[in-house]
Amino acid sequence: xxxxxxxxxxxxxxxxxxxxxxxxxxxxxxxxxxxxxxxxxxxxxxxxxxxxxxxxxxxxxxxxxxxxxxxxxxxxxxxxxxxxxxxxxxxxxxxxxxxxxxxxxxxxxxxxxxxxxxxxxxxxxxxxxxxxxxxxxxxxxxxxxxxxxxxxxxxxxxxxxxxxxxxxxxxxxxxxxxxxxxxxxxxxxxxxxxxxxxxxxxxxxxxxxxxxxxxxxxxxxxxxxxxxxxxxxxxxxxxxxxxxxxxxxxxxxxxxxxxxxxxxxxxxxxxxxxxxxxxxxxxxxxxxxxxxxxxxx
Length: 297
Fold this sequence. Notes:
This protein is α+β, with helices and mostly antiparallel strands. The chain has two domains: about 10-110 and about 205-265, no CATH class; about 125-200, 3-Layer(bba) Sandwich (FAD/NAD(P)-binding domain), CATH 3.50.50. The chain has helices at about 10-20, 25-35, 65-75, 110-115, 165-175, 180-190, 225-235; strands spanning about 35-40, 55, 90-95, 100, 100, 105, 130-135, 140-150, 150-155, 180, 195, 205-210, 215, 240-245, 245-250, 265. The chain has a four-stranded mixed beta sheet, with no helix packed on it. A three-stranded mixed beta sheet has the order 1-2-4. The chain is globular.
């Protein structure tokens, strides 16, 4: 739903670590412009139009959203015309959030890229299938193991396997497959396939609040930040936090969904996430189920 790119420093760091310039900020910026269909104020240097991904800014309609901008300006935090342009090249700031929602309907990457081609015979999409680990022979991945319909099944790969499970589940599946820090895998009783010393990283996440999006490297020495930290500590006792780094904000049904905090969780101290419920769109006719047994071994 929310459209957020990585910061310039992060992409350049990825490129340096991989030794591949295709990961640097300038290269990725070109890709973002190509895939976007930006419906905000024109910004041709940073934003693209005509791509498959519909993106627009979420205008603040509540007094709290407008008050947030006044508040951040009073703290000396700069504001930007959009969060994925110049803001991703500087030390941080505040801007409106951006969402992939059109006429009240969420346009996910799947719906924008994959759904139009669901009737192709060479495309099979399995829902309710959880990838549990990679199937590795020697040093080569030959398929994946999945939990599907109450059974553990194997799907072989004729060409390649692409893991795109998000920032949490991608490293999780790799570790369950024996790829990660050797000491950590041994502690968990997982057979080592490939040692990666820097792999088992820490966990950090952003907080939700209303009206705008802020990001800043560093920690301002202000009493307000300390008060926010104390408030957060009182609600999440035992979780180490650092005063704000990034805050993503939203509204829901004209009411505050979450007041939010300008904090970032410390390493390995992420509080449990609140359970969320989702409604399935039943307005479209369902597609006939195909026999998928041929894909399993």
